Amino acid sequence: MSRLDVAFIIRRDCTRCASVVKRILEIVPSDWNLIFEEEVANILKLPGKKLDKIKADIIITIGGDGTVLRTLQRANGPVLGINMGGLGFLSEVELGNVENTIYKLARKSYRIENSIKLKVMVNGKRQFDCTNEVLIHSDRIAKIRRFGIYTSDNFIDLAAADGIVVATPVGSTSYSFSAGGPIIYPTLNSAVITYLAPFISRTRSIVIPTDQEITVKIIGKDQDCVMVLDGQETIKVTPSDDIRISISENKAAFVNIGRTFFERMRDKLIKNVVD
Fold this sequence. Notes:
Elements (H helix, E strand, L loop, with lengths): L4 E6 L4 H11 L7 E4 L1 H7 L13 E6 L1 H10 L4 E5 L14 H9 L4 E12 L2 E2 L6 E6 L6 E7 L2 E8 L1 E5 L7 H4 L11 E7 L9 E4 L4 E6 L5 E5 L3 E5 L5 E14 L4 H14 L1
Parallel strand pairs: 1-2, 1-3, 3-4
Antiparallel strand pairs: 5-6, 5-16, 7-10, 7-14, 8-9, 8-13, 10-11, 11-12, 13-16, 14-15
């Protein structure tokens, strides 16, 4: 039986997250090959690797959804998130279930689920792929921007708004959902375009099939914007920039220990709203 490579990545500057890693190390199987990202390695006084050099069979992140997304951008391997943040929709495990989860991993009682990523090109230069969304918004508070939206060079819409979100099905539960967009089942091959505070209230989200490339044009002079990739990377964009978003050849891989999408949706979205 091949040896299992398991990596640990924590939220930046989180000693509490490192203490969870310590708990896990007390019960991990002896045949696991353990890899530590530099942040947690420094706290635990262990040898570490840079995030973009990590490749593993399972990557355990301890933090919030930001930690999961940062890991999916830079590391290589399926991610299992332990939630130390707020909502934690992308995090499979809550703190009270850490030990039980490790036992499930040891018994190989899990499956790997893949979801699409977005490929982002700015002036022909590739940026980080996005698991959740590409956000383009005004670089000045309370200043509306005009956007032209095209798919495969076909004109879709001209909208005035604070910004737009292009989200994957996984990302449809995040910023796009907060802006009024629909929840899309994670295995569907689609992306959703949602406007932030549109000037005309009848403007609604648009669901696009993944075989279509989305082009976003910022219209007008002195209309500079900021592009944010999965909440991790920020890029300045202007009306002269060519912005193209399509489906990446890479996938976002998640470790699932048995919860369904609808169970997570009820626990993380519906329950939190009701409570």
